[in-house]
Amino acid sequence: MDLHFGDSKPTDEERAAVDALLGPPESSWEGADRSDADLRWARGGREARDRRDLLLPGLHAINDRIGWISDGALDYLCRRLTVPPAEAYGVATFYAMFSVKPRPATVLQVCTDLACAAAGAPELCAGIEARLGLGSGVTVERSPCLGLCERAPAVLAVKAGDPVRTAVSAPATVERAVLAASAPDSAPEEPPAALAVPQAGQDGLMLLQRVGVVDPASLDDYRAHGGYTALRRAFELGPAGVIREVTDSGLVGRGGAAFPTGRKWQATASQPDRPHYLVCNADESEPGTFKDRVLMEGDPYALVEAMTIAAYATGAHRGYLYLRGEYPRALRRLEHAIAQARARGLLGDDVLGQGYAFDIEIRRGAGAYICGEETALFNSIEGYRGEPRSKPPFPVEKGLFGKPTVENNVETLVNVLPILTMGAPAYAAIGTQRSTGPKLFCVSGSVERPGVYELPFGATLGELLTLAGASEGLRAVLLGGAAGGFVRADELDIPLTFEGTREAGTTLGSGVVMAFDDSVPLPRLLLRIAEFFRDESCGQCVPCRVGTVRQEEALHRIVERAGADAAGDITLLREVGRAMRDASICGLGQTAWNAVESAIDRLGAYE
Amino acid sequence: MTVTPLGIPRRLLEFTLDGEPVRAPEGSTILDACRAAGKDVPTLCEGDTLRPKNACRVCVVEVEGARTLVPACSRKAEAGMEVRTDTERARHSRKIVLELLASSVDLSTTPKVAAWLKEYEAKPDRFGPDAARLNEEPKVDNDLYVRDYDKCILCYKCVDACGDQWQNTFAISVAGRGFDARIAVEHDAPLTDSACVYCGNCIEVCPTGALSFKSEFDMRAAGTWEESRQTETTTVCAYCGVGCNLTLHVQDNEIVKVTSPHDNPVTHGNLCIKGRFGYQHVQNRD
């Protein structure tokens, strides 16, 4: 590889940001002053290229310190990692949280997605923009779902510097949003994660039992509340025994795809190729989903323990926790939890004195919904554009770094703890025969008590909405988020199971239950969903890249129309939607049309 | 004469193609099998010298048991597979994909597309006159070749040819995301400020004419480009001893562009700047 670098130079600050991550450069080949040795040898090669996965952390380092990524900073990072600048430019421009153009140090992201839009995000955004005009030193950006739907409308302020400062305000007013942006350090503390759990402290909870009960910063407190008994049991059972328990429990993935977890683990564990990797998908970006955030903020050690068990069962010694970039508090809590676990011998070379080595590295996403797709997530960690790979080969065979990889969502992993502590038969007895165990639901929108609810599979939609206090005049419920589907207010007897929702012609998806009363203008909502997918399409395949744009255009045309006037465009939407579902590379394109289609078919959106 | 490497012998797999039993060597793609069986499956991003990227999705076919359609260009044939290439479902997706492409980019210099649009009854106009497209002026920033993003379908072939599959220069990549994604050099700079070494291998693989020789671009603009009047002569490059094959495209006794045969076992259609662009001395008759 013969790399070409331009003449642009990093500033001292940019260089310092990169060096803080990678250490100082040693040779002129990677940006230091020339030494005598440099005349005789070329540094880099395979050793440097193997560090390509530090590209995303490197881009974060620059963006965090400066607020944007200049040509000189990008080139310097490329030199350090032996990455071609064109490729790094392609990666930097892929993510919404990075900018390659100069911008003020503070970015205020105002969530304009479904729950926040219904809670007045457009007015909030206009108010903030009126207050923070040009020259205020703040960039105001309209953001997709920030995962704070229970406290809509939400804003996230990120102020570049050393260290970077963040502040979340939700529910936000113009005043509080402006305060968060101008003085993130003095913005009021976020409410505890338990406030997002209306059932917090109730008996019988399994996944949420410790949220609001334990101190999320204290490993001792976690252990005092049953922490690490599941890992001890895992060591008693051995890897094959753990996989047997998980298989017998009937656990299926909670991220939306509902794939049997035991089968995935078995398939990875039996691969002869080494090493194996574990990836925890914490890139929770589905609009309306915030359960993983609440778990990670309220009970971070549970995730660390569950990842350790999953890795032990599948023969992985390294785990990556891919956390979405919009979750600063979850990041801080998990960083702390991992450091504590490491210091206490619960991670590292000899976990619990059992001679088993495992450690976890956190990787931050940078604003890309598509990186929740499992193979796009691998590309993102590896320092490539977060574009999905075509399958087969499947991750269990060729995943992260081309090696066998098991990837599970946060909620899925946390389910492993009760499976091991109570045993597979007892766990499988919860819920229904085909949907076993407890399930988390993210309820938001027109309800009195929005938040994360834990119910055994089989409860009906109506029962859940009664718990959350659905308001009068309920018009529609969105199940499964933007990639899911709408159901009518008279369909509340749908059982919340994978098979029950499937029979009802809809999906459970990631567990989103978003209620809308008749004050919410449906066509605007559908337009927002179409905008979301157009924004988040990676652009790799034609059906999704162009199809999402053509659908959004058609929805714009019919936003104020109905009946015969809309018929032609609805035909067009259907035809394009069908091809997107059939011919797109990944789940994003395949599901992008679901919600709008269901609104047309079930709610009669444009009749 | 071209020497074709034989490789190791491969087993034959049996599967069904449109109801007919077919046999294909292990490792072949569905597209290979279709071509061997004389079936025409349209493709745009598939390249004979590159690994399939399966980004364009015009080659999708129906495989029994698969939830979605599968790209014929990259899916390996498996024993017992039941593949149908011409179902209503596959034809629908191809039609829509062709409409989506033709409504967003200029396919006027893409071979075969006009026939496919007709065959699949694609109507790119139905998205209305306001349908988003690029509408960008061609980028002419050097004397060797022109980038016309209006014609780019983002097939990634130029990226792959410039990167680890052939040239190892890594001068181009995809930047941005979604509909705004573009092929770009670092910092979206002019080509002359980039890592480009002007081998022109990206032009060789470009399926739409988004990348073209400056000579061709100028002649098209002047209305003098006439492929029917051109002759093609394959010869050996005289610059060095490697022996790359050059195909000289000649119109009115002038070399108008240089390509290279893809079945050459050494170069597979790749050249360097001299072989590709260094032909002016041949026609310097003073």
UniProtKB/TrEMBL annotation, chain A:
<dbReference type="Pfam" id="PF01257">
    <property type="entry name" value="2Fe-2S_thioredx"/>
</dbReference>
<dbReference type="InterPro" id="IPR041921">
    <property type="entry name" value="NuoE_N"/>
</dbReference>
<dbReference type="Pfam" id="PF01512">
    <property type="entry name" value="Complex1_51K"/>
</dbReference>
<comment type="similarity">
    <text>Belongs to the complex I 51 kDa subunit family.</text>
</comment>
<dbReference type="InterPro" id="IPR019554">
    <property type="entry name" value="Soluble_ligand-bd"/>
</dbReference>
<keyword id="KW-0004">4Fe-4S</keyword>
<dbReference type="InterPro" id="IPR037207">
    <property type="entry name" value="Nuop51_4Fe4S-bd_sf"/>
</dbReference>
<dbReference type="InterPro" id="IPR002023">
    <property type="entry name" value="NuoE-like"/>
</dbReference>
<comment type="similarity">
    <text>Belongs to the complex I 24 kDa subunit family.</text>
</comment>
<dbReference type="InterPro" id="IPR037225">
    <property type="entry name" value="Nuo51_FMN-bd_sf"/>
</dbReference>
<keyword id="KW-0001">2Fe-2S</keyword>
<dbReference type="InterPro" id="IPR011538">
    <property type="entry name" value="Nuo51_FMN-bd"/>
</dbReference>
<dbReference type="InterPro" id="IPR019575">
    <property type="entry name" value="Nuop51_4Fe4S-bd"/>
</dbReference>
<dbReference type="Pfam" id="PF10531">
    <property type="entry name" value="SLBB"/>
</dbReference>
<dbReference type="InterPro" id="IPR036249">
    <property type="entry name" value="Thioredoxin-like_sf"/>
</dbReference>
<dbReference type="Pfam" id="PF10589">
    <property type="entry name" value="NADH_4Fe-4S"/>
</dbReference>
<feature type="domain" description="NADH-ubiquinone oxidoreductase 51kDa subunit iron-sulphur binding">
    <location>
        <begin position="523"/>
        <end position="570"/>
    </location>
</feature>
<keyword id="KW-0479">Metal-binding</keyword>
<protein>
    <submittedName>
        <fullName>NAD(P)H-dependent oxidoreductase subunit E</fullName>
    </submittedName>
</protein>
<keyword id="KW-0408">Iron</keyword>
<dbReference type="InterPro" id="IPR001949">
    <property type="entry name" value="NADH-UbQ_OxRdtase_51kDa_CS"/>
</dbReference>
<keyword id="KW-0411">Iron-sulfur</keyword>
From TrEMBL, chain B:
<feature type="domain" description="2Fe-2S ferredoxin-type">
    <location>
        <begin position="11"/>
        <end position="89"/>
    </location>
</feature>
<dbReference type="Pfam" id="PF12838">
    <property type="entry name" value="Fer4_7"/>
</dbReference>
<dbReference type="InterPro" id="IPR027467">
    <property type="entry name" value="MopterinOxRdtase_cofactor_BS"/>
</dbReference>
<dbReference type="InterPro" id="IPR017900">
    <property type="entry name" value="4Fe4S_Fe_S_CS"/>
</dbReference>
<feature type="domain" description="4Fe-4S Mo/W bis-MGD-type">
    <location>
        <begin position="230"/>
        <end position="286"/>
    </location>
</feature>
<keyword id="KW-0408">Iron</keyword>
<protein>
    <submittedName>
        <fullName>(2Fe-2S)-binding protein</fullName>
    </submittedName>
</protein>
<dbReference type="Pfam" id="PF04879">
    <property type="entry name" value="Molybdop_Fe4S4"/>
</dbReference>
<keyword id="KW-0004">4Fe-4S</keyword>
<dbReference type="InterPro" id="IPR017896">
    <property type="entry name" value="4Fe4S_Fe-S-bd"/>
</dbReference>
<dbReference type="InterPro" id="IPR006963">
    <property type="entry name" value="Mopterin_OxRdtase_4Fe-4S_dom"/>
</dbReference>
<dbReference type="InterPro" id="IPR036010">
    <property type="entry name" value="2Fe-2S_ferredoxin-like_sf"/>
</dbReference>
<dbReference type="InterPro" id="IPR050157">
    <property type="entry name" value="PSI_iron-sulfur_center"/>
</dbReference>
<dbReference type="InterPro" id="IPR001041">
    <property type="entry name" value="2Fe-2S_ferredoxin-type"/>
</dbReference>
<dbReference type="Pfam" id="PF13510">
    <property type="entry name" value="Fer2_4"/>
</dbReference>
<keyword id="KW-0479">Metal-binding</keyword>
<feature type="domain" description="4Fe-4S ferredoxin-type">
    <location>
        <begin position="188"/>
        <end position="216"/>
    </location>
</feature>
<keyword id="KW-0411">Iron-sulfur</keyword>
<feature type="domain" description="4Fe-4S ferredoxin-type">
    <location>
        <begin position="143"/>
        <end position="162"/>
    </location>
</feature>
